[in-house]
Amino acid sequence: MNPCVRLSELRSEVVKGRAEVFAAPDPIPKAVRECVDWLAAMLREIKQRIPDEPEIAVIPLGALNLLPFNAAFIQATADRPAGPVTVRFLPNARLVADAASWPETGLTDRILVVDATRVPGARSLPRSGREAEALTRRYRARRLGDATSQAVLDALDSADLVHFMCHGEANPTDPFSSGLLLTDGRLTVRTLFARPPLRRQLVVLSACESHLGGTAAPDEIIGLSAALFQAGALAVIAAQWRVDERATLLVLRKFYEHLEKVTPPARALTAAQYWLRTATLGS
After folding, report:
1. What is the pTM of this model?
2. pLDDT tens track for 28-64
């Protein structure tokens, strides 16, 4: 029998209050830190039940998907002999059984880099643009510069790994309108849900709020990650809130280093995030 761990502080009014920290245009670092500490303290109850588990799956429904579970799990389990537990966030329970395994060959040579770092009317992302060039050279990837929605939809099925570098915009009250900001507008959750299934691929979203889902559905999370899984994605790497461009690029560089060592994507991301949390100026 699977154990039941009751986290008494995860009441709806408390969760909504904590989630408001991340809904603000400019979250206050101290409030973010306090939220992570609060959540990590509760998750230590779960830690006792997973002393040796390298990886677990979490489906944070409703307002729970607005909370910083990933940072909290890393903090709560960092002192385990096995290291921080890897958490795979899934939009529904079906994917726990359906999710395919990362191929033992590691990084593929069929990589598509979607570069929408110079979108009219949006803040330019010069570091991400340079990183798109570097990824293209390093892995001999195909690059879509000034990418449009149609160009992306036409090219998606040609790659085993797709890396988006762009802005993301989430709408928790209307998650079907959430999307990635490309040269001709948004590539929305609604559009991705409507397209035929893709090949089994890894999708990396270097875009703010690209993991943020809706809060109304009672048994699943609706958002970009869910839409990409629905379209056949093997795994989705995404950001839960607005993210710092430089920190994101540092994490993803380390993430690719782990992928090259045939590390599964979720574990590669956890290792990269833990590295950044513990990094010093000389590391």
Report:
1. 0.89
2. 788 888 989 999 998 888 888 887 888 888 888 888 8
d(CA 201, CA 220): 22
- Domains in the chain, start-ordered, CATH in brackets? 12-89 (no CATH), 111-276 (3.40.50)
Q: In this predicted structure, what is the pLDDT of residue 219? A: 62
Q: Which amino acid is at 2?
A: N
pLDDT of residue 99: 60
Quick one: pLDDT at residue 212? 82
Which residue numbers in the chain have pLDDT < 70? 1-2, 97-101, 104-106, 198, 215-219, 281-283
